[in-house]
Write a structure and sequence with these properties.
With about 500 residues, the chain is mainly beta. It has two helices and 34 strands. A five-stranded antiparallel beta sheet has the order 1-2-34-33-31, with no helix packed on it. It has a five-stranded mixed beta sheet with strand order 30-29-28-27-32, with no helix packed on it. The termini are far apart.
Length: about 500
């Protein structure tokens, strides 16, 4: 069977590659070229241990921040820390510890609706890993008791939480006790603001390993969309596909999974499988586990990303695909304009002979904004690329190289500001232990971007932007690392 750790989701996978730290970040003023932008940065953890894996969202005028922190504990046992702000991130509440301090907690996720805040995380005991949950109904000022969401499954991890109105949905990966070597995607739902949860639902029901689930609940509240990776149980080096499953009745019933990662050779956007260019020779390949010896017409699809329009009618899916014998990977895209009932053809967004990976996207109005890392023609280092897809996913725009760097640029994140034309993209740039956070802005809805700026930070990685923020401000978080400690930072971007 597939090792679960080999195909972690993007955000969780990255923290195993990078550690993050502390530095002095006073008021940061953007240089000319980044018009009217001020940055006020704060060290939110101020930890004597390791602070990392931060997540940030904005809802109902509040900014919520959650991360893993080992504090002063000598055994590096992680705890889930939480802070909130009601003034666009200028000031944050005192830190609350949400997890049980007797066990190791990691990989938090967060969702919010109205004044309700929901946090999930993974707890690792000596015998089993479990998914835990806490809910707040007063904007994070206090939280209710811890709930064991994954009770009944074993080896549980990679959870994702979404919410709408009084409903809370949590998906995760785990195994049934009677079949501990087979991973499935499970779901539980609450109809009372997270106070009680219904039975565990096996969404994937696959003979292979189902991993890396992501869930989206549009504001209509009726539709629930889940995407995940499923890997076969036949090959020693399993081939994986991306599957989509939906509910049209607020999660009470789900249809059958649909294979999304179909890349027919007749697709005009897809290079001929196995013959588009010679096999790539690059020192980058082994580091990303890429097998260049697959058979013709075999392809490996991993790391799915899903989002939707606010009303749920438009559903967008991205994934990373290994295009057989070349060793290349590309970013593929499919969309639905009928609430996920049918999907259009697969489109190769990156379409380069190099290595394309780690895609992210946000949807706002009828537009979709996509970024990814790509070696393009160089095969030497990664740059950050951007494209905008207009008209509800039907009109593909031009591709822009945002970083144009002489060193590696990755990972990256993207955010959009509501009721404006502003798009922000942030990424890590550098090599070894000398990395910095760079950011650029578009003020014309992604048609052009300003010259990137380097934040005043030291040894910084893992940038995370508020994906959809209010029109007054947005925010960026990252991790900074030193010799023995790491801290998480937040910069309020005011315009």
């Amino acid at each position: 069977m597939l090792k679960l750790s080999s195909l972690w989701s993007t955000s969780k996978k990255l923290v195993t590659f990078f550690l993050v730290a502390f530095g002095v970040c006073p008021l940061i003023l953007a240089p000319p070229g980044f018009v009217n932008a001020n940055y006020v940065a704060s060290n939110l953890s101020n930890s004597l241990g390791h602070s990392l894996n931060q997540r940030i969202i904005q809802s109902n005028g509040y900014t919520y921040f959650v991360w893993t922190d080992t504090g002063e504990q000598s055994n590096d046992t992680g705890q889930i820390h939480f802070r909130s702000s009601n003034d666009n991130g200028n000031r944050f509440s005192e830190t609350s510890i949400l997890s049980n301090i007797t066990v190791d907690s990691n990989l938090p996720d967060i969702s919010a609706t109205s004044n309700n805040v929901y946090v999930t995380w993974e707890d690792d005991s000596s015998e089993n890993s479990r998914i835990f949950f806490r809910g707040s109904h007063n904007n994070g000022r206090s939280f209710e008791n811890i709930l064991d969401i994954s009770n009944g499954t074993i080896g549980s991890s990679l959870q994702n939480v979404a919410s709408h109105d009084n409903s809370v949905y949590i998906v995760w990966v785990g195994s049934k006790p009677e079949d501990p070597k087979n991973f499935e995607v499970f779901l539980r739902k609450s109809n009372d603001y997270g106070r009680n949860f219904g039975p565990i639902i096996d969404l994937s029901k696959s003979a292979g390993d189902s991993i890396d689930p992501h869930i989206v609940v549009p504001r209509d509240g009726h539709n629930v969309y889940v995407i995940y990776t499923d890997c076969d149980a036949v090959h020693d080096d399993p081939l994986c596909g991306i599957y989509f499953i939906k509910s049209s009745d607020s999660g009470f019933n789900f249809g059958s999974p649909t294979l999304i990662s179909i890349v027919p050779s007749s697709n005009p956007h897809l290079p001929s499988l196995g013959y588009s260019h010679p096999p790539i020779i690059s020192s980058l390949l082994p580091g990303f586990g890429m097998n260049t010896q697959k058979q013709i017409d075999e392809h490996n699809s991993i790391i799915p990303v899903i989002t939707s329009s606010e009303d749920g009618k438009d559903v967008y899916v991205l994934w990373q695909d290994d295009l057989t014998k070349t060793g290349a990977t590309d970013i593929f895209f499919r969309k639905s304009n009928d609430y996920g009932n049918t999907f259009g053809d697969s489109i190769n967004l990156s379409d380069t002979p190099g290595i394309s990976r780690l895609a992210q996207m946000v949807a706002l109005g009828g537009n979709l904004y996509v970024i990814w890392s790509d070696t393009n023609m160089t095969f030497a280092q990664f740059d950050i690329f951007f494209t905008k897809i207009n008209d509800h996913g039907n009109n593909l725009g031009k591709t822009i190289n945002l970083s144009n760097s002489m060193t590696n640029s990755a990972p990256s994140d993207i955010g959009a500001v509501n009721n404006t034309n502003r798009i922000y993209v942030a990424w890590t740039e550098g090599t070894g232990n000398k990395t910095n956070i760079f950011m650029t802005r578009s003020a014309d809805d992604g048609d052009t971007f300003e010259k990137p700026i380097k934040l005043i930070s030291n040894n910084s990685i893992n940038p995370a932007l508020i994906h959809i923020s209010n029109e007054n401000s947005t925010g960026l978080s990252w991790t900074e690392y030193g010799n023995q400690t790491e801290d998480v930072y937040f910069a309020s971007i005011l315009e």
